[in-house]
Every structure is written in structure tokens, then in C-alpha cells.
Amino acid sequence: xxxxxxxxxxxxxxxxxxxxxxxxxxxxxxxxxxxxxxxxxxxxxxxxxxxxxxxxxxxxxxxxxxxxxxxxxxxxxxxxxxxxxxxxxxxxxxxxxxxxxxxxxxxxxxxxxxxxxxxxxxxxxxxxxxxxxxxxxxxxxxxxxxxxxxxxxxxxxxxxxxxxxxxxxxxxxxxxxxxxxxxxxxxxxxxxxxxxxxxxxxxxxxxxxxxxxxxxxxxxxxxxxxxxxxxxxxxxxxxxxxxxxxxxxxxxxxxxxxxxxxxxxxxxxxxxxxxxxxxxxxxxxxxxxxxxxxxxxxxxxxxxxxxxxxxxxxxxxxxxxxxxxxxxxxxxxxxxxxxxxxxxxxxxxxxxxxxxxxxxxxxxxxxxxxxxxxxxxxxxxxxxxxxxxxxxxxxxxxxxxxxxxxxxxxxxxxxxxxxxxxxxxxxxxxxxxxxxxxxxxxxxxxxxxxxxxxxxxxxxxxxxxxxxxxxxxxxxxxxxxxxxxxxxxxxxxxxxxxxxxxxxxxxxxxxxxxxxxxxxxxxxxxxxxxxxxxxxxxxxxxxxxxxxxxxxxxxxxxxxxxxxxxxxxxxxxxxxxxxxxxxxxxxxxxxxxxxxxxxxxxxxxxxxxxxxxx
Amino acid sequence: xxxxxxxxxxxxxxxxxxxxxxxxxxxxxxxxxxxxxxxxxxxxxxxxxxxxxxxxxxxxxxxxxxxxxxxxxxxxxxxxxxxxxxxxxxxxxxxxxxxxxxxxxxxxxxxxxxxxxxxxxxxxxxxxxxxxxxxxxxxxxxxxxxxxxxxxxxxxxxxxxxxxxxxxxxxxxxxxxxxxxxxxxxxxxxxxxxxxxxxxxxxxxxxxxxxxxxxxxxxxxxxxxxxxxxxxxxxxxxxxxxxxxxxxxxxxxxxxxxxxxxxxxxxxxxxxxxxxxxxxxxxxxxxxxxxxxxxxxxxxxxxxxxxxxxxxxxxxxxxxxxxxxxxxxxxxxxxxxxxxxxxxxxx
Lengths: 614, 347
Prior knowledge:
The complex is a heterodimer. Chain A is α/β, with parallel strands linked by helices. Chain A is built from 21 helices and 23 strands. Chain A has four domains: 200 residues, Pyruvate-ferredoxin Oxidoreductase, domain 3 (3-Layer(aba) Sandwich), CATH 3.40.920; 179 residues, 3-Layer(aba) Sandwich (Rossmann fold); 70 residues, no CATH class; 112 residues, 3-Layer(aba) Sandwich (Rossmann fold), CATH 3.40.50. In chain A, the strands form five sheets. A seven-stranded mixed sheet of chain A has the order 11-10-12-13-15-14-21, with helices on both faces. In chain A, strands 3-4-2-5-6-7 form a six-stranded mixed sheet. In chain A, helix 1 packs parallel to helix 5 and helix 8 packs across helix 9. Chain B starts with 33 loop residues before the first helix and ends with a helix. In chain B, the strands form three sheets. An eight-stranded mixed sheet of chain B has the order 2-1-3-4-8-7-13-9, with helices on both faces. Chain B contains eleven helices and 13 strands. Chain B has one domain: Rossmann fold. The interface between A and B is large, with 72 and 56 residues. Strand 17 of chain A pairs parallel with strand 2 of chain B, so a sheet runs across the interface.
């Protein structure tokens, strides 16, 4: 790879003498509602199309228009797609934040900015590239009303020129973004983009210390957000009843699902829907409907975020106790209370694992990527019906709402399993059934569906005390037997919950335990710790709760285990403390980040070094 | 040895079932509770119409009223949910299986307080089901607090008067979209039976508010939901005669002030006006009549509103005839080609 050319911009101190290829981050600072999302997605996609591993993170306000938004694009030839804290190239479009954005940069960074902001006066250790956006946009966009939206595309052209991004790929990304139906809009934007490119080529003689070169690391890959991936999983899982109430960051999960279901889940002969999607009046109703549907035999689901989880608490306890399958997607955001609705956190883990009053325990699935959003969604529906209980798929805003580079999804290899449901024919053979009797020793009883045409088919479902035959009871022995069976069922789940991914470093004395989107930062941190400090670290990525023996084996094997939580109180660690022996607990350390941004590797590495006393 | 006469033939309904399969377990409510009378009327109505009990799903929330689904239709699946949230459970179950006949039983505490939101949204959706409110104006299971349907000035057993106006669940249902709205009294056997049968035949949401005295906590002097208060203040709108579809009838309408409404299943409800000019197909007049009767201190009972035209929520969803809950995998899991197509679009 040729990295020999020397940057001519040597006047700037601290810049690398060689240009860095395919390893940088760009931050675009705009105001929301200005159409910058399109320009940012096009920029990200053009890097992707050049075969360079890329990720995009949108940091946006809980607001419709007018507040600051930052979009970070990271290109990494090493394939690191977690957030990177350091910004190499800033595109400063927002007068409100431009000053602070510039002051935060490391020396040697590149600043593309709106000329009237006069940012070059602020510092002398950065590369400044002023662009007169308003002047440039006027000739390419005669309609003054559209200029606000189109002018952002100019920075795509400027950045493409500065980084040597191939303009054919930018055009390809634009066409992809707008689709065939909006060809006119694509053309208008392409004009703006070219203007930016030409302006930069004509005006800027200085080269910047970063550039791109074509790779082939993205061949066959897709770009998708986790919410859409969950939606696809639900569709291929055969979901039939979807109930929801809009809440950031989960709304786009169901909105994506509505789009897919309309296209692919109508009977080709009759045109009839093979599903029902209902926007409920609130989360109390959406979970109630999902449970009612699960009770009546549907594959049902709802999607929500922290405040919705709190509201669903009572119903989830009913689902646990009356043993009704449903799948709840929790796209976590920053709490408590309304919190930071558009920032990411793993803040619901502890609450959700034991959601509702009384002794309750719920299985949790922890996907870390769009592929796992898809595959675990499918698995979660099978799991819910197998164990007749609510199942939570725990994602977060970072995974759910950001665009991720991903391998394409695998078509489910196994047929749909509907769990222990007795039909009228089964009842003829059996003569009857007791709804909550543990016939098979796995704690799971047989159920019938309403509408079963058989005199022995019915039972009465209730959240009050019940015996094996689902009859009302307040007897001590009935209650204890039932609760013990439910506990046993939870134990059986340990053998069926997705097993963790374990990476043992042979000489490692310490280990990481992490889950969900912490994966990207933790994997990169493992490499940093080895390369920079010579510290080898093993890593166990949890994929579900209840915990399995893999976790306890892993802890035993290491001197100290750092449990990575994206929340203030170390919720996953807390959950481990609830059930582990003191000797295991003594080995656990907590590594927490809770600022609302996606976790980055440097934060993890620095914290390990601090705690290890190196 | 004397010969005994052969046993008389068992009485069965038109689908050949005796009344026993329509009964439930023994009630645990107080002797004389209005709710028990309502359970009996439900048993009679479903038996008389020959409804297959396997096609019925019973729903309730929390409270005395919500216990009662265990006391009728023992061969039907039942779901006793959480306080005030029965509409959500029923909605979900009926989405999953639209062939079920949903029968919800709730109380004034369940519906008019914690459940008022879900009740209103059920009404707004015109969810096709029967929604019986066993209304006694009082919380029985927690021993005698006012509910949100207790009338202004009505007193607790201790003599404390209620100083807030009541919700009128019929007025709410009328205003926001229920397509069959009726009020009855647990002590009026014939009227309640006819109303329940009409509800069974109705395609849409049936809201039936039944004044059902609580003998333990709200049957004293000073209560406006007592047996004696109802005897003095009930104002019956119509004489009702339900003619099921399977009975051969002359479709001619009898003499007099009788309105004959044909239901979707071919049955008829014949509504003979009593004391006043009242048209149960006029929603606006029904609301006015409720206001006027309240001002006069009367409790208006009978069919307040019947609309057989408005589409139900399930009809808006473009579903097929079969329950979506049990569609085969071939109908609910798209093909591998579909996944490949979607993946290609995302490249």
C-alpha cells in the first residue's frame, strides 16, 4: 500500500508526515431538520462502496428541527466499526456549535467549514478549509426553498475531493439513496456535490494527511440499522400480531416492519394480510394486546424503550405467572425517567430481568449486531413459545437507529416451532389435560388455544393463585409447587439460551465480560491493550440471560474479570452478584460508561489501565 | 319390583347441548349479588341461542365482577387479567383469532377508573365483542369505597356522601363509537336476556351497562345503586323481543309502535316503544335522552343505540377468514428469495 507521499501542509505542527490511508473519522456538525442525514449517508455509503469498512453514528437531539446534530463516520481498514472519540476531519456547518467543536479537536485535525464562520481565527494548529456554501449553492439550486437541503451535499463533494473518494461512488450512493422515483432530487444533489468537488479542486492546493484507497473489505455486505434487522427477523419468524406505541428509539423497528409486511406478508392469492399490526393507545395496552394474542396462539410482539418497559411491568408479571408467550423488543435509551431519549445506554438490564412485583425472572437476549438482531429475533419467538413466557430482545439506540455494515442475513435453517399446544385430536387421545402440570420434567405445561373444539379443551387463565389445573387457589402447597416449577423452568432455559462467544487469550490473567454494542469497543480495546501495553485480555460476550456455565467457567479461569456495562450502576454486574458465589463475585470488577454516546475503545482501554494500576 | 317410567328426554338447545355445558363453577360472590343474576342471564342467553361454547372467549379485569367469568360458560376459555386492562387482552386475542366470540365482563371500578382509557379506545375501535359492565357504584372486593360511577350525593354505608359527579359509561360509549349500547338492571330478567342476545348477534362492540346492586356495601338507604332505588327510579324505554335466526318467523312487523332490526346473523330484535318517543338508531337523541333522564333522577334502561353498519376494527385490517394465529408456516414465513431480494436492496 502506498503511503509514502509527504503532505505539503508541513506548516501545521503535529501532523503526520505520511498520509493516513483508510483510517480516520469525520464528524459533520449540522442542525437537525436541515437534510444533512442524506448527505451523511451518501458520504458513508460511498466509502462503503469503495470497499472500506465504515460505520456511521448519528448524535441527534430529541427535537424536530433547529438543534445541533453530529454525525460521525469512521473508516477503518482494520475493520473497527465502533465509535472513535478522536475526530480527524470536522465539517462545521452549525454556527451554534462550531466554536466548541473546533476547540475540542486534537492538533493537526482538518476543518471544512462555512466561510462566514471565520473559524480559522480560532486556532493555528489545524488545517482549515473555508467553503462559501451559500454562494456555491445558489447557481446549482435555483429554487431558494430547497437550498437549505441541497447545500449540505456540497460538503460531500469537498470531502470527496480532499480524501480522494471516487466521485462515481458518490454518485452511486446518491442514486441508491434517492431511488429511481426521486431521480430529479438525486440530480439536483449531484449538481451540488460536483460543485463542492470542483470548488475544492480549484481552491485548495494543500493536501490533507488523510485519504482513501479502494479496498475489498465490504464485498457482499449490507448496510442496515438494528431496528430494521429486528423487523426482518420478526417477519421471518412468522410474527402474526404486532402491537406498539411510538417511542424513541424503538418506533422505527415497527415502522420498518410495517413496510416489510405490506410487501411480503399478504397472501398472494387473496391479497389478505397474514398479520395484524395495531398502534395501541399506550404501552399498557400494547403489552396487554401482545399477551392476549400470545394467549390465543399468535406469535405476538411489541417494541418499546425504557419508559415503556416501566409501564409494561404489571402485565409482564402476568405473562410470567400465567405463562404466556410474547416477544418484547427493548431498544434501550438513556434513563432514568425521560432521560436522554436520543442517546444510547444499556440502562434496562436489571429492571427487565426481574420486571414486575413478586418473584419474577425473564429471559433476555442480547444481540450485538444487525445479524444477531435478525437471528435472535427469530430465536426469541421460538423460545417464547417453547417456554411459554415473555422474552426480551435487548438492543439499544446505537444498534437500533444507527446504520451498520453487516454480513447478509442467513435464511432460518429450522422450521418454526410452536411449543406445547394441544389440539382437539390430541385431547381425544389424552382424555384431558392440566394446564400447569409438569408432564415432561422441563417445567413447561401443555396449553390449549381458545377456540379448541373439545369438551376438555378449556382452562381459565388468571394472574391470581392457581393450581396445576389452572383453578383458583390460595393453598400454601399449591402456591409453592407452582413457584418452584416456574423456577425450574428458568433453570431449564439455561441450556437453551444463546451461549456466549468466548475468546480466550492464552496468557491472559484478566478478562472482559460484555454484551450488546459494547462488543465493538471491547474487541478494539483488546487489540489496543496488547499492542500498546502488552496486556493480553480474554473476552466473553454474553448473548443471553439466564447465565450459562460458560460464564462461571470464564470467571474461574481468570484473576480478575471486568464486566462492561453502559450504565452507571453496573447493572449486568449486579445481576451476576444476585446469583454467584462470593468467591466468583470477588473476582469481578466493574467497567462502566454512561454518557449516552456509543462506547469507544479508548475509554475502555484507559479504564483498564487505571484499574490495573499500570 | 315396580317398573319405573323412562326418564323424560333431556332438554337441549338447537345445537343439541343441555344447559349444563353453559354453566360454570359455583359462585363465590355474596348471596343476592346482582352479578350472580347477570351470570345466570349469560348462561340462558348463550344456551337459548345455541352458541357453541368452544367458540367463546371470556375476558375480565380485577374485582368482584371480574371473578364472575369463572361462574358461567365453563367450557369456554377464560382470561382474568389485570385491573382495567381487559380490553387490551381481549383485543389481542381477537386479533389472533377473529373467529372467537369475545365476552368481556367488568365492573365500574375496573372500567370507569383505571380502565377508562382502555375502555374508550375499545369503543373508538368498535372492537367486535360484548362488554358487560356490572355496575354497582362501589368497590366491593376492597370493602366499600366509592367508584367513579357513584352518583353525586349517593352515600357510603357509613353515611359519607359522594361529592363528585359520575361517569356515565353508556354516554361515553355512545359518544365515541360503540355500535350497540344498552343499559339494564340485574333484576330485570327479560330485558337483560334480550339485550344479551342482541349483543351476541351484533357485529361490533356491544356495551351493556347493568346496574347490579352490591348487597353488602351499597344496598342501603342513600345509595342510588340499590335494589329499592332501582325499583323506584328505573325508567324502561322499550319492551324487547329477540327472535333468533333459527326460528321460523313471519317477517311481518306486528301492529303498533314496533321497530324491527335485522342483525347480521339473520336474527331480529323487535323493539316496542313504551312511554316516550325514542329512536335507538339516533345516537344524538340517545345522548339527549340520557341527559334528560339524569336530570329527572331516572335510570333509563333498554336499548339506547344500535348501529349495524359501521365496520368493526377487525374488518379494517384486511384479514382472511382463518385465524392468523394458526396460519401454517408457508403463509407466515416468506421465502428465501424474499430474504435475498431484501439483502440485495441493502447492498
